[in-house]
Design goal:
CATH superfamily of chain B: P-loop containing nucleotide triphosphate hydrolases
Radius of gyration of chain A: 33 Å
GO molecular function (chain B): ATP binding
Oligomer: heterodimer
Protein name (chain B): ABC transport system ATP-binding protein
Shape of chain A: elongated
Number of helices of chain A: 22
Largest interface: A-B, 36 and 44 residues
Number of strands of chain A: 22
Structural class of chain B: alpha/beta
Order of helices and strands of chain B: EEEHEEHEHHHEHEHEEH
Strand content of chain A: 15-25%
Largest sheet of chain A: 6 strands, mixed
Organism (chain B): Cytobacillus eiseniae
Mean pLDDT of chain B: 87
InterPro entries (chain B): AAA+_ATPase (IPR003593), ABC_transporter-like_ATP-bd (IPR003439), ABC_transporter-like_CS (IPR017871), MacB-like_ATP-bd (IPR017911), P-loop_NTPase (IPR027417)
Number of helices of chain B: 8
Shape of chain B: globular
Low-confidence stretches of chain A: none
Helix content of chain B: 25-40%
Bound molecules: adenosine-5'-triphosphate, magnesium ion
Number of strands of chain B: 10
Number of domains of chain A: 4
CATH architecture of chain B: 3-Layer(aba) Sandwich
Largest sheet of chain B: 6 strands, mixed
Pfam families (chain B): ABC_tran
Number of domains of chain B: 1
Helix content of chain A: 40-55%
């Protein structure tokens, strides 16, 4: 009997059944995909880091190094399992020429290494430890992905020639967000090119027990060892590896939640409409003594079939897209060990979608309990009472055209039904606006101020060289005499000892200079202006347990100085652990200098950058736009793509759902339509009424959706962004697209969909519906 | 006498092939301005179909319907709707009202579509009409909050709101008890004496006896016709006798 009822029901409502199935399939597909991707990504990262034996603790260091003292420390420290110091030959990117193109425009710190002996191996694309011969060079896999290099290309460094033998996976520096990239050459070749650049040291440790990393880090700092460079630990490496694909998974998961929500809305709308239609029958069934659970089963059966078909279909579809989405993970990290587990998780994901649908249908069907048999038989229809609608009278209406009035009135009178459509439109607006705002925000120039970088036109880095202060002063003199430079500042980073709460000392890098010229975004407080003030990066503030207004003791030139925390800002540079202060200091060594400059005419940026690059070859000079594109380039372009995709998806959803709802409404409203036609309303009047309903709901939807996008959406996007190290976050909204173009797109889609959806109203015959 | 409706030989059928049946089988009727016509006939004889055809609500297969000289089958949907809204009024057996609107809004709906500016005037007129049919105090009520007879009176107000030339009534008193039915007939008669033509479908001889002309339908044809003088409230028994005799003769 169920079979027959289900078949009849489905054949009577093919369109809505199909749409609901499609949404369930899409939801199941996305959930399955994200389950599979999560398992694969974490598996791939684990196996990459296991094969490569990634260091647990890395201290980068430039300048003199005392290896004997380090070795001594490693042997005495009980946590250390293995220890090594690797060399990293930093060569000016302009001197690296791949296939006749130099890497001059590349903002990564490109450098050369030899294969290490104990751990931190560089792997080939099959996951094996590379054995490199003389004359060969292995290039970071990122340059394969972006097409910079291919196997067989000639690489020239100064005068030395290499042939690209393959590509390497670097468990430390794979990610674009890790600012250095290692090329692999043989020991002999390394010795030959050693004079072309400056050597930096990677002081690496593997511990017996990874959980002791905090204790070890403290021990390293208090031992007063080499610290002239960023410190990175195992968890951060892991995060860097996970971030870009992790973001993609997060987006897929978010979209799947929305699709599930839309599937729910479809189901709710159909069920409510069906219950309204069947109201009298349900009453009769109750009256003749059928149990509510029996009646529920009749309705539930159909959705069990739809949900089963949809989720199975979605699971099957996920196999189609899996390869495509796993491609990046496979390239950068290799095959995961647990791909069979991934399938199991995929199945679990699919089952979750299925169960969620069934649970939701059951919940909607709870309404049956409220139906009174007597009322159902007497009135035959659900009496929806809404106070607001009652006061809204045609006889008092002077403002709206009658058709518009009737449309709006209907929406007010049947809020429950239209709430469903509203929810879908709110979701669509949300999906359109949030990625758009996000993309607009991260491609806006001011975004870098969230990342701890001042908003300027040119950034000049002086590091890994000697006489930094003299060289910096030379550049500053030039800038001062350059009339195209409107303002500039010099920020010098030095390392100081800070006293922690428990009396121990910790090294902290402080950027000294005037921070008011190119301010960064402070999540709390403000920039330091007085000599006894200091601003901390979010991660530092967190680790030191400081809030704005707290005191802090620094050891400067052997004396203890009291400073007050004036502000906290986000930072992604240098492992996120930085500080800013204005006090003058001549005691400590300069680690590096950064000079920011703003041009009076922005369009000169490219010319100026190359002019200065030629003049000061010891400094790294980058236009900020370039800096942004190369640091966040792939993120911006994937967010851009995602936002275009989101707009298309949202518009398709809007059109589909609107057509569907309109068709259903027309089917339900046959009688009132016939009545209106009998009393002289034309087909275009009816159409106008339905358009008014749709547009009225849409306007509320757009307002709500935009509001939600700018509040909840901002929080969500902020959560994503904060995984980069930024802590305070505000959308940079482009009002033209967000408040004009997007609503216009929505309105035109809804209008087109309404015209299509209500075309059936013209065919409704008066005589067939007003039967005498 | 000027004729407002002229039907010439209209035919209409439903169904296809073997199932095909002529529901209107060459019907010709003329209705004069201000005339009070009723149609009687057994169930399924085509009375409602004729009324839908005459008012342009349904298409016909062949023949011609003219309303005030305009051939309805040549008019577009919009023009037909305009005529129905401005020149015709309808009262059906079941109250055909929109659930969303209250009684007053339902009444003014057809008229306010064109004259939103004069909403105050239209509302005033509706109040007068409602007063006249005895439902003056119900204007704010929902359509589910009044009785069937009250709803039917509201329906008459709606039919009258745009001063139509003719009112069509398809068994407007069919769902009412005889006391309410007579009251409704009193109202309709009064409207008729004020100059509006009325075309009424009814099964009730007592109702039909109050009209000027009775058309008897059988199997899609008008089989007989009966004429009276305008009803003045006196000779109802006599007229009824004649009608029932005719009905018996025709086997209705
Ligand atoms: N849409 C339709 N499709 C098929 N047949 C129809 C349709 N509408 C009416 N009919 C048939 O046409 C015939 C005439 O119907 P109509 O409604 O005009 O009868 P009627 O005289 O008004 O009857 P009643 O007194 O019962 O209201 C009936 O036999 C009916 O079955
Ligand atoms: Mg009939």
């Amino acid at each position: 009997m169920y079979y027959k009822i289900i078949r009849n029901d489905i054949s009577k409502s093919k369109l809505i059944t199909l749409t609901t199935t499609i949404f369930i399939a899409a939801a199941a597909m996305l959930v399955t995909l994200s389950a599979i991707l999560v398992v694969n990504l974490s598996g791939a990262i684990d196996s990459l880091m296991k094969q490569a034996k990634t260091p647990h603790f890395l201290q980068m260091h430039s300048g003199d190094i005392d290896t004997v003292r380090l070795k001594d420390f490693a042997e005495k420290n009980s946590h250390v399992d293995e220890f090594q110091v690797l060399e990293f030959l930093n060569i000016d990117s302009a001197k690296i020429v791949i296939d006749r193109n130099s890497l001059a425009d590349n903002v990564q710190d490109n450098g050369f290494s030899t294969q290490s002996e104990k751990f931190d191996y560089l792997l080939d694309l099959d996951g094996n430890i590379i054995n490199v011969s003389d004359g060969e060079i292995y290039v970071p896999v990122g340059y394969f992905k972006d097409g910079t290099a291919k196997v067989g290309d000639k690489v020239v460094i100064d005068e030395k020639k290499f042939t690209v033998a393959g590509f390497l996976r670097d468990s430390q520096m794979n990610s674009l967000l890790a600012s250095s990239k290692r090329f692999l050459v043989s020991e002999n070749d390394y010795a030959e090119i050693k004079d072309y650049g400056s050597t930096e040291y990677l002081i690496e440790f593997r511990l017996k027990d990874l959980s002791e990393i905090g204790t070890f880090e403290a021990a390293y700092t208090s031992a007063g060892l080499e610290v002239n460079g960023p410190t990175i630990t195992y968890p951060l490496f892991k995060m860097l590896n996970a971030i870009s694909d992790g973001l993609m998974i997060a987006v897929i998961l978010l979209v799947s939640v929305l699709v599930v929500a839309i599937a729910f809305m479809c189901i709710r709308f159909t069920l409510l409409a069906k219950i309204e239609d069947d109201y009298r029958e349900i009453g009769v069934m109750k009256a003749i003594g059928l149990r509510v659970s029996d009646i529920k089963k009749l309705y539930l059966a159909k959705y069990t079939v739809i949900a089963a078909v949809g989720s199975t279909l979605g699971f099957a579809l996920s196999f189609l897209f899996r390869g495509m989405l796993l491609e990046n993970i496979r390239l950068y990290m290799g095959e995961s060990e647990n791909s069979s587990i991934a399938i199991i998780f995929g199945i679990i994901g699919m089952l979750l979608v299925f169960l969620a649908i069934i649970a939701y249908v059951s919940k909607v069907l709870k309404r049956f309990r409220k139906i009174s048999a007597a009322e159902a038989i007497r009135f035959g229809a659900l009496q929806e009472k809404s106070a607001g609608a009652k006061r809204f009278c045609l006889s008092r209406n002077r403002l709206l055209h009658t058709n518009i009035f009737l449309g709006v009135k209907d929406v007010l009178a049947r809020k429950g039904l239209y709430a469903t459509m509203l929810a879908v439109l709110v979701i669509s607006t949300f999906i359109i606006i949030v990625p758009q705002n996000l993309s607009n925000t991260i491609s806006s120039k001011s975004f870098i101020t969230y990342m701890g970088i001042g908003n300027s036109d040119i950034r000049i880095d002086i590091q890994q060289t000697d006489h930094i202060s003299k060289k910096a002063a030379e550049i500053i003199r030039t800038l001062e005499h350059d009339s195209t430079i409107s303002k500039h500042t010099l920020l010098t980073t030095k390392s100081f000892k800070a006293k922690t709460e428990n009396g121990s000392e910790e090294r902290i890098k402080i950027e000294l200079g005037d921070h008011s010229i190119f301010p960064v975004e402070y999540s709390k407080g403000r920039a330091p202006v007085k000599e006894d003030e200091i601003a901390l990066s979010a991660i530092n503030a967190d680790e030191l347990g400081k809030k704005v207004g707290d005191g802090m003791t620094l050891v400067i030139d052997g004396k203890e100085n009291k400073l007050t925390v004036s502000g906290i800002y986000s930072d992604i540079s240098n492992g996120g652990k930085t500080a800013k202060a204005v006090f003058p200091d001549h005691s400590a060594d300069i680690m590096w200098c950064v000079i920011y400059a703003k041009l009076s005419d922005k369009s000169l940026a490219a010319d100026k950058t190359s002019e200065y690059a030629n003049k000061f070859n010891f400094a790294k000079i980058s236009g900020i736009d370039e800096y942004i594109t190369q640091t966040f380039g792939s993120t911006i372009s994937s967010v851009d793509k995602a936002s275009t995709a989101a707009i298309i998806i949202a518009l398709i959803i809007t059109i589909l759902i609107t057509i569907l709802f309109m068709k259903l409404l027309i089917a339900k409203d046959r009688y009132p339509i016939a009545v209106m036609k009998a009393f002289g309303f034309t087909n275009s009047d009816i159409m106008a009424q339905y358009m008014s309903r749709a547009v009225f709901v849409l306007i509320i939807g757009i307002i709500l959706g935009t509001f939600l996008a700018n509040t909840l959406g901002e929080v969500l996007a902020g959560a994503v962004i904060s995984s980069f190290g930024a802590s305070s976050f505000h959308f940079a909204v482009n009002p033209l697209t967000a408040y004009l173009l997007s609503p216009l797109m929505m309105i035109s889609s809804v209008l087109i969909a309404t015209i299509i959806g209500t075309s059936g109203a013209g065919k409704i015959k008066i005589s067939e519906h007003i039967k005498e | 006498m000027k004729k407002i409706i002229i039907c010439e030989h209209i035919e209409k059928s439903f169904g296809e092939g073997n199932e095909k049946r002529n529901v209107l089988d060459g019907v010709s009727v003329e209705i004069n301005e201000g005339e009070f016509v009723s149609i009687m006939g057994p169930s399924g004889s085509g009375k409602s179909t004729l009324m839908y055809a005459v008012s342009g609500m349904d298409s016909i297969d062949s023949g011609k319907v003219s309303f005030e000289g305009k051939n309805l089958s040549t008019l577009r949907e919009k023009e037909l709707a305009d005529i129905r809204r401005t020149e015709m009024g309808f009262v059906f057996q079941q109250p055909t009202m929109l659930k969303n609107l209250n009684i007053l809004d339902n009444i003014i709906l057809p008229s306010i579509r064109d004259n939103r500016k004069s909403a105050t005037k239209i509302t005033e007129k509706a109040r007068v009409l409602m007063e006249k049919v005895g439902i003056g105090e119900l204007e704010k009520r929902d359509i589910t909050q009044v009785s069937g007879g009250q709803l039917q009176r509201a329906g008459i107000c709606r039919a009258l709101i745009s001063n139509p030339k003719i009112i069509f009534g398809d068994e407007p008193t069919g769902a009412l008890n005889s006391k309410s039915a007579q009251e409704i007939m009193d109202i309709i008669s009064e409207i008729n004496t004020e100059g509006t033509a009325v075309m009424l479908v009814t099964h009730d001889a007592k109702i039909a006896a109050r009209t000027e002309r009775i058309l008897f339908m059988c199997d899609g044809k008008i089989v007989s016709e009966m004429r009276f003088k305008k009803y003045n409230g006196s000779d109802i028994d006599d007229r009824m006798k004649k009608v029932t005799a005719k009905m018996r003769e025709l086997g209705i």
